Every structure is written in structure tokens, then in C-alpha cells.
Structure to design on (231 residues):
């Protein structure tokens, strides 16, 4: 099992195979629209990866500027968007979410899927400072009344929320700074048991792969936290 950093640096193809099986009930678009209807908006996406969110947000948005630290991941996102013919209103660039190249007050919505938490996880002793830098950048980019939406892991392999304990301080910080939250299911539906074991082990580790094998799981429950704040 590669580390998360190694996945983002070198394993975009495997990661893309995994996310294609995620959210089999298509709950994500509805959850986002309940917070802010994305039709006609200028959207900035932070930590876009291979374009998991970009590809469906592009349908109704006026524009999407999607960035990520990994050129490797963005190359896959570019290919996916080209295949979907969704490049007219999308632009990709390599950027740190704390220091983006976008103009002041240029977005109605900023969204970060399973990525904003790394400011805390990789920030170590300065994690609060790193989060504040990320939030300051969001303030700079959003127009008055704009919204920041964060999607985060609330537990893979669980049918109800079990957020990873190491993220507890991060989530508590967001609550204390005014974020609202809810959660949805974003379950995986794999093609067969072999794929389930392979991809579960790739990203979630040998223990998850062993459970999938033992129980014959071809689907995997997942809870996703949806946290948002209006600026």
C-alpha cells in the first residue's frame, strides 16, 4: 500500500479506478446543490486530484478553475475532461491551496474534496496556522455571500459516521470557526470481488482488503462529511 503522498505523486491511474466506483448512489451532487446550487456559478476547486468533483460540476457551472499540487493527478483530470468534452468552462493548474494564482473575489463557490484536511495532517505542530492560511485564501477568493464547502472522510467501511480519530482536532477546529456540517453515504460498488480486494487494499490498506476477501464484499460503505461556511 503506497502512502497518500505516493498515491498523489505516482498512482493517478489506480486512484482514478477507485473513485470511479465511489458514490454509487450519486449522493454527492445533490448534497452540494442543497448547500448552494452550482448552476451558473464561478467555482474554484482546491485539491482537485483527478477531477472527481470537476467532472460533474462542469455540467452546470459558468466556470471551474481546478488546482492541485500534483501535476500527475491533474494530467488524468485533463484526459477525463477532454473525453467528456467538458473543457470549455474548465481550467486546470498546479497550485498550493494556500497560495493560488486566482484573482481576488473571483468565485461564488470554493470546494475541496478530501484534500483540505491535509493542511492539518501534514502541517504537524503548525497545523492551525496552515488551516488559517487556507481559510484566508478562501476569503480572498470568494465574492460576498460565497460559500466554502469541504468534503472529508467520515469513515470508510462504516454505515454511520466514524471519522478517523487523527482528524478529530481538525473537525473540531472547523466547528469552532463557524462551519456547519452534515454527512452522506458515498458507498463504493466494485465490479467484482477481485477488484474490491485490489482497490480496497491499494488505498485503505491490507486490513480492509482482508475484510473484503473474508466477507465477499463487492460493495464498501463509506460516510463522507460535508462541511460548509458562508463568507
Amino acid at each position: 500500500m503506497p502512502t497518500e503522498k505516493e498515491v498523489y505523486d505516482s498512482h493517478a491511474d489506480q486512484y482514478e479506478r477507485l473513485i470511479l466506483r465511489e458514490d454509487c448512489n450519486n449522493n454527492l451532487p445533490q448534497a452540494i446543490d442543497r448547500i448552494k446550487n452550482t448552476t451558473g456559478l464561478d467555482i474554484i476547486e482546491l485539491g482537485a486530484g483527478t477531477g472527481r468533483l470537476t467532472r460533474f460540476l462542469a455540467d452546470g457551472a459558468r466556470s471551474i478553475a481546478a488546482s492541485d499540487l500534483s501535476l500527475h493527478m491533474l494530467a488524468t483530470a485533463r484526459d477525463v475532461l477532454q473525453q467528456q468534452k467538458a473543457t470549455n468552462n474548465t481550467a486546470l493548474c498546479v497550485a498550493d491551496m494556500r497560495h493560488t494564482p486566482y484573482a481576488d473575489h473571483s468565485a461564488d463557490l470554493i470546494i475541496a474534496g478530501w484534500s483540505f484536511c491535509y493542511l492539518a495532517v501534514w502541517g504537524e505542530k503548525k497545523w492551525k496556522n496552515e488551516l488559517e492560511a487556507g481559510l484566508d485564501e478562501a476569503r480572498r477568493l470568494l465574492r460576498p455571500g460565497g460559500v466554502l464547502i469541504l468534503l472529508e472522510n467520515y469513515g470508510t467501511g462504516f454505515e454511520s459516521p466514524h471519522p478517523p480519530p487523527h482528524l478529530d482536532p481538525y473537525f473540531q477546529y472547523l466547528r469552532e470557526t463557524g462551519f456547519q456540517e452534515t454527512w452522506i453515504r458515498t458507498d463504493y460498488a466494485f465490479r467484482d470481488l477481485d477488484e474490491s480486494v485490489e482497490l480496497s487494499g491499494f488505498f485503505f490498506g491490507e486490513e480492509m482488503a482482508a475484510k473484503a476477501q473474508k466477507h465477499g464484499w463487492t460493495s464498501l460503505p463509506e460516510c463522507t462529511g460535508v462541511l460548509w461556511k458562508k463568507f
